[in-house]
Amino acid sequence: MAVDIIVCIKQVPDPVHFSRISLDPATKTITREGIPVITNPWDKNALEEGLRIRERSSGKVVVLSMGPPQTRKSLEEALAMGADEAFLLCDRAFAASDTLATAYTLARGIQKIGHFDLILCGNETVDSGTGQVGPQLAQFLGIPCVTSVNEISFEEERKLIVKRGLERGHMKVKLELPALLAIGREINKPRLITAFGIMQAAETDITVWGCEDIGAEPDSIGVKGSPMRIVATFQQHPKHKGEIMTGPPEEVVNKTIEKLRELGGLI
Ligand SMILES: Cc1cc2nc3c(=O)[nH]c(=O)nc-3n(C[C@H](O)[C@H](O)[C@H](O)COP(=O)(O)OP(=O)(O)OC[C@H]3O[C@@H](n4cnc5c(N)ncnc54)[C@H](O)[C@@H]3O)c2cc1C
Fold first, then answer.
1. Which pLDDT tens digit goes with each residue over 212-228?
2. What's the predicted TM-score (pTM) here?
3. What strands lie across the sheet with 61-66, from one edge to the other?
4. Where are the domains of the chain?
């Protein structure tokens, strides 16, 4: 059985550099200039799961992202991991989309790509992390959606059983394709990129589509299509000064214990 899979990936600021991120007081958005970017880690788990399903059942794995031109890097990485095709939805008109406008734009892109059996998203992102895009996208496409998925198994052709994490335990859900699954981090360990993968990726073109290419309604994308408004932002400043202990491990441990006793943290 062939399963055609579309994996949605978002490029995000690298959490290692989060301390360099600031909020623009005028636009109330994150200033990302100069901050190194990575592929959202959950999306790599989603891609890995897509690749594993393809290895078991054939079909193709397509990666899709909406973002600025630099998002190509994440798509190239996905191709190097083993994706068959890559699509970038890139247009100034998509800028400042909230989750609804993002989901709408991705849905238009998916409709233009055409056939799919399974859509895989990350459960959330490391930057704004609303976890809304997957369920909203499923709604636009009119397909069932399961979030926090930690295990996928095929019961029979086109019928899946997925295990989703709950606060205290898990739940097993049966569903039929086509469907959308939002993937959790525990599901797998994404594969490393090989030199062969990089060579293959270099031979694969990334298709770039703008607003008109996907037939998006101008009122449903970007700022116009985003009902969410950020009314105020503030930055939290640490109330206490941190202290870095240096020296050999034993000395550092003793200094730390002494300091904690001094501050009343240890009796
Ligand atoms: C601090 C902050 C707070 C925000 N709060 C809200 C809010 O409360 N409500 C709101 O509507 N918007 C909010 N936004 C805007 C939001 O970041 C964007 O709409 C963004 O495009 C998607 O939201 P997310 O990162 O939360 O995605 P999530 O819903 O957490 O993403 C889940 C998955 O959807 C897929 N996905 C998400 N974005 C893309 C993309 N561009 N391309 C391909 N796949 C994608 C990925 O697979 C991802 O793992 C906020 C932005 C900031 C900076």
1. 999 999 999 999 999 99
2. 0.90
3. 169-176, 159-166, 145-156, 179-183, 118-122, 5-8, 61-66, 85-89, 206-209
4. 5-220, 242-267
